[in-house]
What we know:
Blueprint: H1 15-25, H2 32-36, H3 45-56, H4 64-70, H5 77-82, H6 93-97, H7 109-122, E1 130-132, H8 139-146, E2 151-154, H9 158-169, H10 176-196, E3 207-219, E4 226-229, E5 234-239, E6 242-250, E7 255-262, H11 266-269, E8 275-276, E9 288-289, E10 292-294, E11 301-302, H12 304-313, E12 317-327, E13 335-337, H13 341-356, H14 358-361, H15 375-379, H16 391-414, H17 417-436, E14 443-445, E15 450-452, E16 465-469, H18 477-495, E17 505-508, E18 522-527, H19 537-552, H20 588-610, E19 611-621, H21 626-638, E20 641-650, E21 667-675, E22 684-685, H22 686-706, H23 713-731, E23 734-735, H24 744-763, H25 773-785, E24 789-791, H26 792-801, H27 806-811, E25 816-819, E26 822-825, H28 858-872, H29 874-883, H30 890-902, H31 908-916, H32 919-925
Parallel strand pairs: 1-2, 1-18, 2-17, 7-8, 18-19, 22-23
Antiparallel strand pairs: 3-4, 3-12, 3-16, 5-6, 6-7, 9-10, 10-11, 12-13, 14-15, 19-21, 20-21, 24-26, 25-26
Helix pairs in contact: 1-3, 3-8, 10-16, 10-17, 10-18, 13-16, 16-17, 17-18, 17-19, 20-21, 21-24, 22-23, 22-24, 23-24, 25-30, 28-29, 28-30, 28-31, 29-32, 30-31
Amino acid sequence: MSDNNKKLIEESLPVRTIGIECEREGKGIFPPLNRYHIWWARRPLIASRTAVLASLIDSDQMSMDELVNRMGITGDTVEKFKTVDERPSGQLVYEHYGYRRPFQQDVADDDLAAIREAARESWDGKLPTVLDPTAGGGSIPFESRRYRFPTVANELNSVASVLLKGVLEQPTVGEEIIDDFLHYGNKIFSESKSELDQYFSEAHGHETPVSYLWANTVDCPDCGFEVALAPNWWIDRQSSREGIAVRPKVGDDRLEFSVVELTPDEQKAKGQEHIVTKSEFNPTNGTVSYGKGECPDCGVTIEGDSIKEQAQNSGFGEQLYCIEYRNLQTGDRGIFRAPDEGDKDLLSDAKKAVDSDPELATFLSESVPDGTKTSEARRYGITEWRDAFNARQLLTHHKLYKTFEEYKDEILDEYDQLEAETILTLLSVTADKYIDYNSRYSFWDPYTPKVTHAFDRHDFSFKWSFAETDGTADSAGYKWCLDYVAEVFEELTDDFEHVKPDDPLTILNQDARNLELDDSSVEAVVVDPPYYDNVMYAELSDYFYVWMKKYLGDVYPDLFTTQLSNKDAEAVANPAQFDDVASEDNSKRELAKNDYENKMAGIFDEANRVLTSNGILSLMFTHKETEAWDTLTKSLVRAGFVINASHPINTESPRSLHQSGKNAARSTIFLAARKRLDDQKEPVLWEDVRDETRRAAHSRAKDLDAREIEFSKVDMILSAFGPTLEIYTKNYPVVDSEGDEIQPQTALDEARTAVREYLIENYLNSEVKDVDNKTEWYIMSWLVFEAQRFPYDEARRLAIGLGENLGELKKTHRMWRKKSGDVLLRPHGDRVQDVNKKKENRSGLKPVNPDSISFSLALDKVHAAMHIYESKGEAETWNWMNERHCGSDPAFKATVEALLRVLPDNHDDWELARDLSVGETGDLLNLDLDSSIFVSEDKDSNQGNITDF
């Protein structure tokens, strides 16, 4: 490839600028594409826009700076980011930056013309065609279409295929269609409301109900009391001591509830029954914690297995414990009342209505498959999709669907095909939106406070208490969803103001390994492929598939030919697909890995076929496990591609709930690849490649550090994977001295080692290199992953790199334990025997005896010192340390200092390490510490404590 054919993505990208814009895009109101309908793991639009446009334009046709400016990033973004939190009071964020977020801007005529002309000149006078073979929620084709490039969007999943029609094709119909959509939506609502009113609570004066808060219930196995399962009783939590809650009271056979207001003011609380203090009642103390329940009547613990057994055998019961009202005169919500007997009678009526209707009694009876994610649903008794709704929710959704069916033929007769499809799709999307906010998976968020949708995480995590939105409310439920979808679709229409209905667009619902496209018909394949085992799209989408099939099965008959979504052809590493064929020799995980590699190789093979000879493949990949990168690389080289460039972009929110509580990669690595032209290339020796790999990895880490890129240590390692894979694919095939092929994983491990050495050199005390390997593994785990929890495979690879066995670190030394397949590092309290107990009464599971005079591991000695300090105080600890010569033990001193550097300063062990290093014990150790090590602002005090935003 000549230099004058190099695309911008093959040279340099303004990674910090794009990363900042990705972060800005994830705050406040999301792009309309994201709000139209839920889809999992969408890339930010600005990342997709960058990938598309930088893949189409030669570097000699437009500079990267000009492209960034024409994409809507018109200020000094990096400098402005540094001072965004210091802006004057009242100044809006976009005013500080000097421009709105790119997705909120209209594409200017001159920018559109300049970008299209530069792309045309880069491809010999023709506009290039962009293909996304795994389009998902549509971020990539959306940006391609917005700039009016010929676009091909393919997606195997039928739900996603409908969404692609809704965001790529139907917005060109025009805003006029929105009035027609609202006309029919309001008819559906009003007619359904007239029949559903009898099942919902009545207004209290000027206050009308909008939301209902439920708890799943089980019977206490000891006393038979019906236990309402709720992790807490907060309704509107303003602080730990202030807000609104429901207060449970033990009744005859179940709990009774009253709404109370919590106040920190002791005086104000006296004499007012509905106002209490936290000392009187703590709403944080619910009836279920860590999967176990507690009977409020007899106090017996209800084990998790007992709860699941009841759920599977007879199903959960349910108890309504609070109703939210809205004031019709002021519009204010957040008025809460406990339910009365009349409210409970309505629920009984709804159950009778479901049971007595022959169609409704079996409606939505499709089985929930026993998959990797859906198995969680089955464990809690949700074996058919109808089980995801309580009786009144199911009754409501069914009535809305049946009323929709009454108008479907009228819509098909009155409008042309595209207009009718648009109206019907929007009505189906509205129903899905309501289903997302009105099921046993939707729940009440007391911090907002409001009903939160089902998929706050990428799984079917069970909700002990759930929320229902009133199907007859004028400002909630279906009616709110209807108006919301109309607003979002109007924004999508505005985004496509420049787009012409006849601009080339092809939407396919095919296996990406076998597309109905001509050879050499595409100039650029831009893809955000499924990330190995990160998201099980098909399993998650079944929640919507079963409803969308009913709404649109006859509108798009080719999309809904199977009972559930296509999981067999899906390119994800899904172990559940291999339950029946796994063996001792071939585990489910290994079979899933091989299946993913084969499918991705097939997708890249197809990309190679449809690409022109000078075409480009640009892909985005986010995964912190080496195994996933190894598999991706194998797929690329098998398909005949060589990687030419890589760029790390900070695209992930650090507060995303599906990453909560564990280490998470925030970087998306952009890879640019071309067709390999020398298939008969002679193998290259690994010895000749290894040093180049190490240098490239070290250089990338150093470069990111020097440019103050705000990446985590994991992201620094991931960023080194890019240049490593460039070297590997350019030299492929790579073999050892015996001629055996070197796998990409070997090169990635070499890169990891190089970055680890860089991190030790720059972030730790040099003496750490001399401590025992087991202690170094513990320290390096905290340094590299910056969290207490991280993937098992990465922990194993780190141990191998230090010559250690991960199993021994767990069983013999108890440095970690497993949690949902991840590694969870243990603090000192989990490892050291209690010095205050007699030896015969101490836990035999804890390997560290604090009475020992000598210790084989530096970590054991430091953890024992922490325990002594915590149990007996500074004076006793000084004596203990002096007897064991800690002041002259370089390994002990190095470990204390290293833990101060790597532990988050809200960790108990960090505080103990600090205490050991100051005062009398500090004088004994005489550590040469910079004062900045104790300053919270210089440390990430939120490591491993991620919350949603």
